[in-house]
């Protein structure tokens, strides 16, 4: 199981990678004042780069989700096994939400989900760019096809 410190380090690293990659690659998404050949070459680099980032963020997101689920279920179990008081399952669920590990990772989860959504949005835009380039290429090929040799 991942610790809070490890998760925070991984998250901080991913934020840095995200920001550096954004600075380098987002200007390449633009399709004006660029040749079609250059835009097609950039497409491969953009997709590979952002697929990797989305995958890394998704992995961290999954690891955090596992910790949240484990902390929540452990807290419920502890609460229900407390022999000094009788706790209903509903009460145990509410008490479980006050568990420190659960709260810490739940807060980090919000930040990781935001980074994931932003990364996924950029990747979706890059995928849309691929379709635009495909349509442009097909249009150019179709117009050239009408020339008599």
- The CA-CA distance between the termini, in Å, is 67 Å
Strand residue content: under 5%
Runs in which pLDDT lies below 50 for 5 or more consecutive residues are none
Largest sheet: none
Structural class, by secondary structure, is: mainly alpha
Number of helices: 4
* CATH fold title: Methane Monooxygenase Hydroxylase, Chain G, domain 1
Helix content: over 70%
Count of individual beta strands: 0
Level-1 CATH class name: Mainly Alpha
One letter per element, helices H and strands E, the order comes to: HHHH
- In one word, what is the shape? elongated
- The value of Rg in angstroms is 24 Å
- Average pLDDT, to the nearest integer? 92
Please state the second-level CATH architecture.
Answer: Up-down Bundle
Number of domains: 1
Topology:
Elements: H1 4-29, H2 36-81, H3 89-96, H4 100-145
Structure notes:
- This protein is an all-alpha fold.
- The protein has a single domain, classed as Methane Monooxygenase Hydroxylase, Chain G, domain 1 (Up-down Bundle), CATH 1.20.58.
- 85% of the residues lie in helices and 0% in strands.
- It has 4 helices and no strands.
- Helix 1 runs antiparallel to helix 2 and helix 2 crosses helix 3.
- The model has no long low-confidence stretch (mean pLDDT 92).
